[in-house]
Design brief:
single chain; about 60 residues; 3 helices; about 45% helix; about 0% strand; elongated
Length: about 60
């Protein structure tokens, strides 16, 4: 009885999503599609770091 109550309250991703701990719950059948879409968005991403004006001096 306590185990079922615990699983209902805490071992449920939908409860965590309602509380804002996670952004989204992805069903297993949509996982591959979501990963492919995210990787396609990142394919052409180019990170530009700002130019360093000063460097660390060796000590």
């Amino acid at each position: 009885m306590r185990i079922a109550e615990y699983e209902k309250r805490f071992a449920n991703p939908f409860v965590a999503a309602e509380r804002g701990y996670i952004d989204d719950v992805i069903p297993p059948r949509n996982t591959r599609r979501r990963i492919c879409r995210a990787l396609n968005m990142l394919r052409d991403k180019h990170v530009e770091n700002p130019w360093k004006k000063h460097d660390n001096i060796p000590l």
